């Protein structure tokens, strides 16, 4: 029997892309003038990288055959992306509040743009990862 690509493959790829955008935006944010003093929170980086790796593993394994392992990878990836999002929010929420209230300047707002992009992309990656868990990567043709 041959296997055909399913919608789950494309949804998982979108989730990977969104998680990569989040990771890149977060790393760019840690290099800005305002946020550089906070450094890089490795829990955010590790959760996002592990989530991406598990989704890639699910796609690779799903191309051959759908098993319970691919289902477990989907759940674990969604959990890691959720934890990464929460840790990112934890690392940046106080600074965002300060920028939006007391330290509101053009330079700080420019530095905050990459932070907001990172948070939005992580949220999108998490939601799409959860949605992709309802679809198979391939189906029998």
Helix-strand makeup class: mainly alpha
> Quick one: how many beta strands?
2
User: What is the string of SSEs from the N terminus onward?
Assistant: EHHHHE
Strand content: under 5%
Major beta sheet, specifics?
Answer: 2 strands, antiparallel
DSSP helix fraction: over 70%
Please state how the strands of the largest beta sheet are arranged side by side.
1-2
Query: Any idea what the shape is?
Result: elongated
> Mean pLDDT, nearest integer?
91
Describe the structure.
- The chain is mainly alpha-helical and 141 residues long.
- 76% of the residues lie in helices and 4% in strands.
- The chain contains four helices and two strands; from the N terminus they run E-H-H-H-H-E.
- A two-stranded antiparallel ribbon has the order 1-2.
- Helix 1 runs antiparallel to helix 2, helix 1 packs antiparallel against helix 4 and helix 2 packs antiparallel against helix 3.
- The longest helix is centred in the middle third of the chain and has 34 residues.
- It is elongated.
- The chain starts with a strand and ends with a strand.
- The relative contact order is 0.25.
